Amino acid sequence: MKKKLLTCLASLCILTNANAHFQMMYTEEMALDMAKKVKLNLVFTHPFSGAYTMNMKGVEELYVINKKKKKDLKKDLKEVLYKDIHSDGKGYALTYKARRMGDHLFVMTPAPYYDETTKNYIQQITKTIINVAGIPSDWDTDLGLTAEIVPLTKPYAIWAGSSFTGIVKSNKKVVPYAQIEVKYLNRDIDTKTNTLGKPRIKAPQNAFVNMIIKTNSMGEFTFAIPKSGTWGFKAIDIGNTKEYKGKKLEQDAVLWIQAKDMK
Hints:
Layout: H1 2-19, E1 22-26, E2 31-32, E3 36-45, E4 59-66, E5 69-72, E6 78-83, E7 88-98, E8 102-110, E9 113-115, E10 120-132, E11 148-151, E12 158-159, E13 163-170, E14 173-174, E15 179-184, E16 187-190, E17 195-199, E18 211-214, E19 220-224, E20 229-235, E21 243-244, E22 247-260
Parallel strand pairs: 2-10, 10-22, 12-22
Antiparallel strand pairs: 1-3, 3-7, 4-5, 4-8, 6-7, 8-10, 9-10, 11-13, 13-14, 13-19, 15-18, 15-20, 16-17, 20-22, 21-22
C-alpha cells in the first residue's frame, strides 16, 4: 500500500512538473531610461522550482514590433547551452539594439516540444515587452495570434503590491474561463555565463509553485503582484491547432512582466 502511494505521489509530481514548463524570453530590465543593447535569453525551463531545463527544438518565428514596424530577428539568434542545477538545456540568445523610443514588443513561436510524461506536444507562443524612455507605443497591441495574452496594464510599469490585468485571445477572439498558470521567476539568470541559479525562496506548498487563476466570461483576468521581480502568465491550451505529427498539440500563450519595489 505504501509503495503504491509513493508511486502515485511520484506520478503526480511528474505531471505537475510537466504543467510547469515555461518558455522564457528573459531580459534583465524591461524599462530602459535610454537606448541600449539588451540581451534576450530564450530558455525552456521551470522558473520557480528549478526542476530542470529542457532542450528547445528550434524557433519557428521571432520578431519585434516598434511603433507598428515589424522586424524579423530569427536570423540573429545564436544557439546557447544553458547550465542548470540539475541539467543543461539547449536554448537561444539574442543581442538587440533598442534604439528607438517607445515599446519593443517581442514575439517568439518555438517549434513544438514533445513531452515524454504526457506524450503530447507543447508550443508556447511567448511575448516580452521592453520600453525605452517611458513613452508608450505598442504594449497593448492585439496581434491576432493563435494563442495570445494582450496586456491591459503596462507590463513593464508595475509597482509590487499593485496588480496586472490582461485578456486572453485566440485569433482576436476572447477565450472565456481559460486556465492561466502564474509563475514567479524564482531563480537568478546570469546572462553572461548562461547559468540558471538555485531557487531563492521556498513555497509552503505545491499550489504556490503552480498558481492557477482563470479568465472571466469576457476573457479577462487580474492578478495582484505580491513581490518585485519577473512574473510569467501562461494561458493553457487555447490555440486553434490541436494536432502535430499525429499527436495532441497544446498551444499556450505566455506573457512576461516585471514589477518594481517603491523606494
